[in-house]
């Protein structure tokens, strides 16, 4: 009777990328308010008529898609949900201020379980001086859906969009790439082993770094502060939630440019390399870095004139440069061949 | 392995009311920012250091809990999700400005289905001059979860909390009560009939009002404007999303007072009365009004001095008055007996 499956001319969701889908759905919406400075299409909305802008972003995590209760401690989940939402504020070069949490949850969860979740939410709020200003809890027939609205602010002149990169700008990334996804691979491997033999005690100690990167990522406000202290305003910025390739393509699309990044410049932790070597299909660490996702590092571009400021900045790596409009987004290998970066579709894991 | 079911000392979610649950979960959170004027515990958070305050509220709707795809047209669903979120801004005496939409959706839904949903979202945005400033779409293994963040503003002196009611204040409510729930009862009845006999064509024409109330509620910004034009700032306000009894109890709890409302003053539409008379267990229209929910009317209190302004205000009914601290919240029947209003627990339908 609900007929959702039987429409004529039906287009499946996975035939469009998430970006294209949102573009299609939000097409034809008009702007009614002066206080709407920037709406759909960046890490956060930019609002307000004064010189200090309000930044608002929403992040949703779905059980079975974004997290698996078999190996996700609830406290970590709460922390991560907040961290992921705040990361959008960092990606606008902003300071985080408040969050609102909305949970849909089945009665499989007890009050104590939600208290664990909120302990993680509180920890992340404390860590980043953020206030919880609203929380509602709804029933759900199955599993948990966790939506965090993050609110922050930035001076208008410091707000950094995806669209400001120009030719010759340097491409920078914080931290390292692919480690969160490597942590996920380890957890998925241990889950399979555990299912086959529930007495098995996994030894996870040697994977501590990649596991922490997956289970408890941090928004990089330390980078936002470093940039401010050097007086650098990036020309474009985005957070690495879906993998480097996808984020580079967003910057290139929004900024109408191409890019070149150098494979040997991509920062990859040795644990990531080791995890890849242990996986069955000879996984390349660089694939993890390009497509892994979940790192919540900052990817940004700066003008050439800021090179001196950037080259010794702690935890920041210059990985390439922006090329002219019409050029593709590519990675240059150590053998000097170029590989075209490709977009991800609407994926189960993102 | 996830052990959610097997905790010792487990407290079930449904043993606490939603209000008590949120209080317990958000206990111990500190405030870090001057721009956090009011956080958890009202219809919206109140933010900002200037005289114009930013209001932010989140509303989540879960398939199978808040809506049933068997009788909810997607366009109506989109409209309702936005209307319900905006209603929180109205309940703070504010003006709506922006929304952000976050959807978790299974591949049972097509791109065209989401376009229908967004057509409803757009219609509500147009109707209330609101800008869509963000939208993300996530996978979900089952069904749909729809979260709308509503952003609005109000001058500091006009922001109306749940906590400002004092003894002798008049209790007012807009529109009528119980009609949305009556619409739901009709749809549930037709669903049962349809399942028994799929060739059956329901005749819904004579229920048009209550069906529209359920499927396409409106946030009462017309009331907010009327109040402003008369120079009336309510002493307390809340929107009727869970039923009159529950909302009155919120106001009494937050304002530290009791209340008396008069049964014969409760505004009930004749279609609501008719639907109740058709239901099997001799349902009382007043029960619908007290406990039905989903009307999105405004319940507010005004000082006695505003009586002249209120008594002829269009679509507003004076239904009782606030009593002193320590008094119960009661309804007085036409026979002059008093019935104590009781809170709802954590319910499947809210």
Describe the structure.
The structure is a homodimer of 350-residue chains. Chain A is α+β, with helices and mostly antiparallel strands and 350 residues long. The first copy, chain A, folds into two domains: 124 residues, 60s Ribosomal Protein L30, Chain: A (2-Layer Sandwich); 171 residues, Alpha-Beta Complex (Phosphoribosyl-aminoimidazole Synthetase, Chain A, domain 2), CATH 3.90.650. Chain A is built from ten helices and 13 strands. In chain A, helix 3 links the parallel strand 4 and strand 5. In chain A, helix 4 packs across helix 5 and helix 4 runs parallel beside helix 8. The interface between A and B is large, with 93 and 94 residues.
What's this, in brief?
With 350 residues, chain A is of the alpha+beta class. The first copy, chain A, is built from ten helices and 13 strands. In chain A, 32% of the residues lie in helices and 24% in strands.
H/E element sequence of chain A: HEEEHEHEEEHHHEHEHHEHEEE
Overall tally of domains of chain A: 2
- What strand line-up does the widest sheet of chain A have? 8-10-7-11-9-12-13
Distance between the termini of chain A: 32 Å
Largest two-chain interface: A-B, 93 and 94 residues
Unreliable residue stretches of chain A? 345-350
Question: What is the C-level CATH assignment of the largest domain in chain A?
Answer: Alpha Beta
Residue share in helices of chain A? Answer: 25-40%
Report the major sheet of chain A: 7 strands, mixed
Percent of residues in beta strands of chain A: 15-25%
Corresponding CATH architecture of the largest domain in chain A:
Alpha-Beta Complex
Name the quaternary structure. homodimer
Judged by helices, strands and strand pairing, the structural class of chain A is: alpha+beta
Please work out how many helical segments of chain A DSSP would assign: 10
> Over all CA atoms, what is the radius of gyration of chain A?
21 Å
CATH fold descriptor of the largest domain in chain A: Phosphoribosyl-aminoimidazole Synthetase, Chain A, domain 2
- At the fourth level of CATH, the homologous superfamily of the largest domain in chain A is PurM-like C-terminal domain
The beta-strand count of chain A equals: 13
Average pLDDT confidence of chain A is 91
The dominant shape of chain A is globular
């Amino acid at each position: 009777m609900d007929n959702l499956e039987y429409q004529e001319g039906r287009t499946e969701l996975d035939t469009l990328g998430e970006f294209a889908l949102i573009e299609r759905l939000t097409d034809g919406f008009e702007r009614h308010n002066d206080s709407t400075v920037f709406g759909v299409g960046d890490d956060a909305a930019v609002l307000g008529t004064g010189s200090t802008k309000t930044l608002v972003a929403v992040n949703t995590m779905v059980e079975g898609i974004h997290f698996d209760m078999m190996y996700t401690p609830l406290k970590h989940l709460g922390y991560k949900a907040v961290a992921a939402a705040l990361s959008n504020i960092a990606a606008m070069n902003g300071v985080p201020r408040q969050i609102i949490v909305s949970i849909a949850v089945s009665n499989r969860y007890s009050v104590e379980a939600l208290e664990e979740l909120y302990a993680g939410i509180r920890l992340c709020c404390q860590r980043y001086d953020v206030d919880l200003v609203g929380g509602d809890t709804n029933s759900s027939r199955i599993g948990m859906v966790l939506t965090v609205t993050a609110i922050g602010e930035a001076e208008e002149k410091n707000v950094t969009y995806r669209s400001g990169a120009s030719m010759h700008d340097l491409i920078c990334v914080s931290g390292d790439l692919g480690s969160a996804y490597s942590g996920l691979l380890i957890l998925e491997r241990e889950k399979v082993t555990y299912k086959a033999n529930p007495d098995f005690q996994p030894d996870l100690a040697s994977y501590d770094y990649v596991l922490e990167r997956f289970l408890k990522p941090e928004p990089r406000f330390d980078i936002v502060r470093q940039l401010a202290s050097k007086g650098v305003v990036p020309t474009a910025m985005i957070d690495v939630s879906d993998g480097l390739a996808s984020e580079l393509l967003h910057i290139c699309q929004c900024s109408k440019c191409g890019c070149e990044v150098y494979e040997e410049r991509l920062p990859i932790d040795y644990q990531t390399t080791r995890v890849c070597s242990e996986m069955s299909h000879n996984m390349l660490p660089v694939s993890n870095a390009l497509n892994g996702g979940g790192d919540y590092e900052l990817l940004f571009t700066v003008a050439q004139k800021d090179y001196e400021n950037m080259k010794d900045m702690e935890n920041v790596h210059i990985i390439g440069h922006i090329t002219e409009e019409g050029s593709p987004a590519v990675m240059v290998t150590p053998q000097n061949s170029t590989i075209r970066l490709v977009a991800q579709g609407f994926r189960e894991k993102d």
